[in-house]
Amino acid sequence: MARDDNLPAMVTVAMALPAAYPVGPVVQANIQRVATAMLKFGVLGQQYATGVTHGTLVGAMVSG
Predict the structure, then answer these.
(1) pLDDT (0 to 100) of residue 23
(2) Nearest to 63 by CA among 24, 22, 26, 23
(3) 48 touches 39 (CB < 8 A)
(4) What is the total count of domains within the chain?
(5) pLDDT tens digit string along 40-64?
(6) 20 — phi, psi (to 5°)?
(7) 43 lies in a domain?
């Protein structure tokens, strides 16, 4: 990240996750629920409303 985003090392060190950080399968329904809440509370702009409500925004992110 430091190289690609031109971030100082002190920033990327603070962002580093511990080796034991839990990771697991990506569950599209869970991400969709978060996206819907973000849209509802104004964290996501209205330009994403159609993609969120139709599930295409999250679907594109998950299917990569």
Answers:
(1) 83
(2) 26
(3) yes
(4) 1
(5) 999 999 999 999 999 999 988 887 5
(6) -90, 10
(7) yes
Residues 3-37 have pLDDT tens digits of 788 888 888 888 888 888 888 888 999 999 999 99
Instruction: Tell me whether residue 4 is in a domain.
Output: no
30 closest CA partner among 5, 3, 61: 61
- Asked if 28 and 52 count as a contact pair (C-beta separation under 8 A), the reply is no
Torsion of CA 53, 55, 58, 63, to 10 degrees: -170
- The pLDDT value recorded for residue 1 is 66
Confirm whether 29 is domain-assigned: yes
C-alpha to C-alpha distance for 64 and 50, rounded to whole angstroms = 19
Residue 46 falls inside a structural domain: yes
Domain span at 50 = 25-64
